[in-house]
Amino acid sequence: MSVILAIESSCDETSVAICNNGKITANVIANQTIHENYGGVIPELASRVHQQNIVPVIQQALIDAKVNKKELDAVAFTRGPGLLGSLLVGVSFAKSFALALDLPLISVNHMHAHILAHFIDDPKPSFPFLCLTVSGGHTQIVLVKDYFDMEIVGETLDDAAGEAFDKTAKILNLPYPGGPLIDKHAKLGNPLAFKFGEPQIKDLNYSFSGLKTSILYFIRKQELENPDFIIENLDDICASVQHSIVYILLNKVKKAAKQYGIKDIAIAGGVSANSGLRAELTRLAEELDWKVYIPAFEYCTDNAAMIAIAGYHKYLKKDFVGQDVSPMSRMEF
């Protein structure tokens, strides 16, 4: 038996989860709305709000799981990648908490955890499988051979898919966070209304900087002819942008699946909550006879449940770290 408390603080969500012998019994997330006023995450503000949130979030997680802190067997935490100030709050608290209770520490790679979120609920993928991890900071195709034996076989050479959504939202004057709003408007629009430049990248890598530029120039040109173009065509613009991004993402996944002869396909990361991506992946599963694994919405964005399940599998291996561990804004995969 093992009871693990996990802390996630890589960006602007303060989250704590409890994993009891491989089962998530609590997953508390405190979001930071302050960044909406600035159109993006302000690192210094994020770290300050983490300091305010972390104690009450831990207390609530223990209450939800009906666990006393003396019953804990280990403390898992996100070491990176992420915002250094935000990580520092979570890592420092985890070290102090573990030291006070004489508990072992478990360091978790944030991107590994996104993938291992698929092992929280059934159905669980079988090894090996391919996982498309898509977020505001990362876009990767990962060959997952075991819980901690993973290989990046394709990744973005510049911007992430999530950033393409967010930057497009800014161009369209949508409030932050813009990605979910593009998804909302896309449901009402025609995905084939407008066409944008498609990146010509060899192998399994991605590029989204050119797509962002194509969208920007298109909007500017249209607004010169019609200043109300965005307002009059918002749904169709969002649907067309979303269609372009999803096509680019899944076209590479199709190539990877064929190249490696794998039919078990998963998605992870914040952008995996996008309804267009989920729908198209489900359609491809039927067309190509794939087994597709799509996480529950609560496990798509940053959350401590994914840190807890990763921590649980590390606990089984007795893979602990010492009190000299430090946060890392960038980590080797």
TrEMBL record:
Q: Which GO terms describe its biological process?
A: tRNA threonylcarbamoyladenosine modification
| Name of the featured protein | tRNA N6-adenosine threonylcarbamoyltransferase
**A Pfam family matched in the record:** TsaD
Q: Where does it localize?
A: Cytoplasm
Which PROSITE patterns does this entry report, sorted A to Z? GLYCOPROTEASE
Query: Does Metal-binding appear among the keywords?
Result: yes
In the Enzyme Commission scheme, what number(s) does this protein have?
A: 2.3.1.234
Show the Gene3D superfamilies listed in the entry: 3.30.420.40
What this protein catalyses is: L-threonylcarbamoyladenylate + adenosine(37) in tRNA = N(6)-L-threonylcarbamoyladenosine(37) in tRNA + AMP + H(+)
Q: Which keywords, in A-to-Z order, does the entry hold?
A: Acyltransferase, Cytoplasm, Iron, Metal-binding, Transferase, tRNA processing
